[in-house]
Amino acid sequence: MTTSTEPHDSAADHAAGPLASPGLAPMTSPRACRHVARRVAGQRGAAHAAASEPRTAEVPEGRALDTGAFDIEPRAGALDARAICGENGPRYRRNDPPRSAHVCDPGELIAALPALVGFAPQRSLVVAVLRAGVTHGERPVIEALARFDLTPETRRRARVSMFTACIAQICAVEQAAEVLVIVVDDRLSGPSVVDADADADADALVASLDKRLGRRGIEVGGGWAVRGIEAGARWWSLFDREQRGEVPDPTASPVTLAHVLEGRPIRRSRAELTALVEADTVRQGEVAVLLPAALAMARDRFTRAVTHGDLDGYRRNALEFVLWQIAHVESGAVPTVPEIAELVAALRDRAVRDTMFALAVGDHAAAAESLWLTLVRALSGPDRAEVAALLGYSAYIRGDGPFAGIALDAALLADPFHPMAILLETSLRAGMRPEALRRLARSGYDTAACLGIELGPAVR
To answer: Residue ranges under compositional bias (Basic and acidic residues) (predicted)?
Structure first.
């Protein structure tokens, strides 16, 4: 078992600028009202709708943005936004085979949201960005989703400004000019009664959002609201409260079924995702006791390697130790506290750490992510930030935007100036496709090859 403690070279990392912020609720727009009535009536997709098949719009699945609408294929994703622009969900590569799931009406779309987002959104605004270039007679396709909290501690005008900037940024990335909105908020009164507080505030927020997006050439093509996502819940149009219906059982949604068959867990709430990266203070204390000795041993090995001109050999041994631990996790084992301390020392070597990005696209991606989850709970400070950034990258690449955002939040809480975490979070909030970040994985493969280690083929 060999580790490395070569000083971290932050200048070699990529830095990114600060992020934006957001917040939201429902609306009434005559222009959008006419548009959504046409869409719900199915006029836009009639030419392609089979008599035995419900008429739907299309929602891409497989990305990590919060979406809302009609056909779901692999490249879409979900973005979770709270005080910042959101957790962008990455898409799958363009050469992946199409796997569309159809939903028939707004109720089915709402029922599909927990599967698309990865958890059941609460007090949230979900924005679905429609794919550009859809011609008349074709069903609209949802290209990306974004989720925003409805309870930010900012004033309405500031919230709308942040929402607008974020949505416009995503639309620019997608070259899209139309969005749909879904409001999930238990404080709303429902389709029959308009509460003076919650409903009026929501209507004002969405009307402002509609107006500001319109100035940027982005149309709000439709919108719906629901108090909660559960079987039998009443949904209604944000433009015409006479348009309403019931949400079918979310667990029976074809989108949910597809995600379950792919082994993608659906959490009951965002809190369940956040709990996965919560610090284990007891384990942190145990690791902290053993870490100085592990680092001292690594420094000694590093010094001997440099003295004998065998730095690559030292790094190769350190990398092999980390890869052995990942294989160990894959067999069902859990790293011991001494092993965690040695892993920390190994990952403090920049070459070893950077190689880890390659694992996100390889055969052992799930095992590597399991190890990062174990480490992120057991570590603190910059070491926690390093592992959380690896965890966030892995989730980003596999299409889980909400969890990627949670992991990157944890990284930046541990180290607010962590360059890689800032870069990844900025990319996520802007809706950047994961394939644009695959160069990190390719760089990891190159580093491993220089050390004489074959990591296997990329499968993602």
So the answer is: 1-12, 55-64
